[in-house]
Amino acid sequence: MDLRAGDSWGMLACLCTVLWHLPAVPALNRTGDPGPGPSIQKTYDLTRYLEHQLRSLAGTYLNYLGPPFNEPDFNPPRLGAETLPRATVNLDVWRSLNDKLRLTQNYEAYSHLLCYLRGLNRQAATGELRRSLAHFCTSLQGLLGSIAGVMAALGYPLPQPLPGTEPTWAPGPAHSDFLQKMDDFWLLKELQTWLWRSAKDFNRLKKKMQPPAAAVTLHLEAHGF
Amino acid sequence: MAFSVVFQTALMLALLSWRTCQSEVLAEYSPLTPEGLNISVSSALQHLHFQWTVHKLPYQELQMVFPIEISRVETSKVIWMGNYSTTVKQDQVLHWSWESELPLECAPHFVRIKSIVNDARFPELSFTSNWSSWKEVRAPTPEQNHWLIFPRNKLVEEGSNVTFCYNSARNPGLSCYVESALIDGEQLDSNLFTFTLTNIPFIRTQGTNIYCGVNHTLKDGVVLFVSKVLEEPKNFSCETQDFKTLNCTWDPGVDTGLGYNRQPSQQYTLFDSVSGKKKFCVHNNWCNWEISQDLPATFNFTLTAENYLRKRTVSTAFALTDRVHLKAPESVYFKNVSATNATVTWKVPVFRNYVTLLCQIELHDKENVRQEHNVSIKGNGEFLFSELQPDTEYVVRIRCASARHVWKWSKWAAATLVTAEAAPSKALDVWRIVKSNEGLHNVTLFWKPLSKFHANGKILFYNIVAKNLDKKSELKLLCIPAPTNGTELTLDQGSYQIQVTANNSVGPSPTSEIVISENSGNEEVEEEKINGTKDGFLVSWNPRYGDRAGHVVDWCEHPQNLHCDLQWKYLGSNTTSTVISSDAFRPGIRYNFGIYELSTDKTAYLVEKKTGYTQELAPLDSPQVAVANLTPHSFTLSWKDYDTESQRGFIQGYYVCLKSNSTECHPDSVKEGLPDKSTCCKHDISNPKQKTFLVKNLQPESFYEFSVSSYTSAGEGPNGTFTKVTTPDGRSYMLMHIILPMMLCVLLIAVVCYWKSQWVKEKCYPDIPDPYKSSILSLVKSKENPHLTVMNVKDCIPDAIEVINKSEGTKVQFTGKPLTESESPRPANLYLLPAEDFSGLAPCISFENFTYNESACDSGSCAHIPVPTTAPPCQLGMLASPDNSLTSLENTHTHSQGEIPAGEMNMNYVSQLASPMLGDKDSLLINPPEPVLCSEYKMQMAVPSHLASPVLSE
Question: What PANTHER family does the record point to (chain A) (predicted)?
């Protein structure tokens, strides 16, 4: 489904409204320590928002790459994108993940993806595309901070990047531009998969963190979600 | 001499033998064969770079030709043959390049070379070497062996041709696409295919995608980056505003930058060949250049635009003073501003004072440029404006440029100037309307407001001075505040001179003067019709008076309005015609023009009046018609009150349309069809003053309908509603004419008779009944008793009289003894009773009064018939039959119940009053009746039955 700019703004307004009213939700506004619940909910909402924001951005960017990248059934081999963090995981493995590992994987994935995305932004030729990418990067940075907040609330340390493992984006002269485009394609695709997976992760965490007696599901309804 | 000849011959022989020997040596050792052939590959440029040397040159330099053969895939497939000619020097490494249209990665190339000595200077060295052995060249490919398509990451200009190849050795069925379009490749080898894209368009900055796959499985792809062609910078120029910095600008044209950092936007470099300085420009359309104050102020700039594929340059050379574009002047002020003069001052921002500037000064009013001046200045500017218009707002604009060479003018600096007021410069245009009324002149003055040009300021008020020319001392002064444009004066019948001035804050205008003479407003001039056109009216007149100062034509622009908007036009003394035109003129409106002659003393005399229409229209309404003199054969129509002045054209006549049952029209009328498909006979009355029409030759007792409409030159007005008329019957008409006079005559006679009624009464039926004249006597005598005679009243001696019943409205007068109160309620029957003394003496005599027997009168005999007095007592009652008496009483009784007819009542009472006893007492006295012993006067009326019956019984 294509998202128009108006939808994005509507979504943002909806999200802002939800966030504004979060403190008023009794289940989330317990006296004393609210726990990680609100943070998880906020992270979940932000994930869903980014998921839809990315749809609009990816459509624009793939058109910018040209055919065959903007063709709906295009599924290129993952040649140069091996360094991208994979979101796909076996279901049993995913179910068996503990909270810490689940959150750590999310954090690490978005850290890498954000870095790649900034590289993508640097080589974009049009100003409008640069602005869209910059806006998305800012949002993704927010998601990263939100995940860090949840981890802190749960008492998990943030993963430290190993020195020298910071991903770089430096296409050399021997590097094929076509492969570069494929990497861009895979970056966007992997990002989309990660956002989808994160929504599942945080939904699972959210349910897990809610006390049974005061279980209240904040059902977020927004057009296009 | 001989020695020299021998020496030359020996030398030639030596050389010849050396050459022969050398040829043999060369053929054997090939000393001029290319050696050390080294071939390098430039994959990006698809170039093969050749390097070789030629050893053992016999001379320092030698002209040689190197034939080169290049094969592709295998040595036998020579794709290119050519010669490289050059001058080879000792120990020189020779270089040569060959560009392949096919990417070098596509297939191996084989190269061989040989040499030919072909130097005209050394014809003896003519020599061709053998071919070198084939040298195989393979372009290095990266380790990734999955690359199938070449060239990779190619950058070309729009419109170029590019050949691609792809290898399907490991991917049978490999097919390739350009932007989703399948490409048919040309098979070069068993697994090698090529295709060429020609005249490649620019699609996007991210490049054109070319990719290959097997069954929709992507195997490899490349991006062909197509750059737009770099354009030469346009409109390159440099200028300075402050002599410190040169600002160079240009139009960069299209941006040739590409995505993925394949090609940044073109870069611009500025180079001054005079100073030898160079500057890389940050922006793509302008660049600033610092001016060195110690260098001569001349420049020769070259602007270079450059990208990866192309370089473009433009140049300009100039002296600094020729490229001065000053900033707009500042501090524009005015001083010494009067009504007609003002001085403007200004400053020009930073410039060298030794430079002479040329400044343009413009003076605008609200509409146009009024003054333009060019001024040369050094330093601050100052200029005096003269001949300005008082009380006017001007805009002064100033711009400057270098006087040496006007490269570009600075921007305009503007300021507003308002001049001072001055007294109005023109007399008012004044006119008047004079109306005489009861010995006074009602003068309405009009004047046209002064234009701004003549007012020279805001008009505050108008002064009006009226001088009586007969009594010089008499002055009338009026001050009318602006913006009023007229006033009314009431003057006596004398001559007046009226002066009008307009005044602003500075002073009055010149005086306008008009004179009202004694006869003004009383002129009788006949009105003349004129024909106007849509462009106006041509009004002409005949000059009347000898000495005249001019003419005035006046008219109302809106004559139908209450304020008719008087207009006037002053014309010269010799003018006898003018065209009056106005946008306000409308068709169908009558405009009246008055033509006045102005005498030398400014008195205006009405000489002619004109009236007309710009365009006549048909009348809007029809006259109201009245019918008169209706006879069986004619009637008259009249429409006296029809207002022709308000019509939309001059009424030229009327049409009378007469509808009748007759199908034929009178000869002086025309038959015409009507909208309702009926017809009428149309009579044309061509005299507009005729407002009556006699419709004749009509049939009596016939039904006619008529309508009257007027017409102008533009056509006929609307047909009014038809009025219906029915002619009267001829006989009744005649009868009316005979009977009416007769009735009048009868009425006259009746009046006369009434007037003379007393006389007739006296003649025909006098008031006093004379029994002797009564016919009753003869009637009774003839029927009953021939001896009957009239009783003489004086024979009865009444001793008492009693009123026994008194009817309302009856007035009875009594003689004799008055009634007492106790006697009054007695019934109002009148009894003539004998005195008690005589009660038994004689029987009661009663008689009926037949004096006014109608039957008697009706019979025509109103004569009083004398009644014999010899009638026996008490026999009178027997004269009438008992039946008659009873009937009479019953009638009397009945009438007493209030149902007595008035006539009858009156008649009875008349008879009572007329009795000798009551009404005619004098007669009684004069002619006393004969005494009667007992007599009874019997009432003819109002006898109650209870009283009447005893009488009868008695």
Answer: CARDIOTROPHIN-LIKE CYTOKINE FACTOR 1, PTHR21353
Contact status, residue B96 vs residue B84, Cβ threshold 8 Å: yes
- pLDDT tens figures, B229-273: 999 999 999 998 888 899 999 999 999 998 888 899 999 999 999
Residues A169-225: tens digit of each pLDDT: 444 444 688 888 888 899 999 999 999 999 999 999 888 877 654 444 444 333 333
The answer to whether the CB atoms of A68 and B211 lie below 8 A apart is: yes
- Smallest CA–CA distance from A180 into chain B, residue: B260
Give the DSSP H/E element, type plus range, for residue B447. Answer: strand B440-448
> Strand pairing of B931-932 and B795-796?
parallel
The Cα B52–Cα B41 span in angstroms is 15
Residue A69: its chain B contacts at CB < 8 A? 209
Closest approach of B178 to chain A, Cα-based (Å):
9
Euclidean distance between CA atoms B551 and B572, whole angstroms: 6
In sequence order, the 6+-apart residues with CB closer than 8 A to the CB of B762 are none
For B261, the closest chain A residue by CA position comes to: A123
Judge if pTM exceeds 0.80: no
Which residues in chain A touch residue B215, judged by CB atoms under 8 angstroms apart? none
Which chain A positions have a beta carbon within 8 Å of B205's beta carbon? Answer: 125-126
CB atoms within 10 A of CB B487: 16
Asked if B255 is an interface residue toward chain A (Cβ–Cβ < 8 A), one would say: no
Amino acid residing at B866: P
Residues 6+ apart with CB under 8 A from B514: B430, B431, B432, B497, B498, B602, B603, B604
Nearest to B803 by CA among B817, B789, B784: B817
Q: pLDDT by residue (tens digit) across B426-445?
A: 999 999 888 888 778 888 88
Residues of A in contact with B258 (CB under 8 A): 125
B140 to chain A: closest CA residue? A174
- Spacing of C-alpha B649 from chain mean position: 25
Contact residues on chain A for B261, CB-CB shorter than 8 A? 123, 171
Cβ atoms of residues B128 and B148 within 8 Å: no
How distant is the Cα of A183 from the closest Cα of chain B, in angstroms? 12
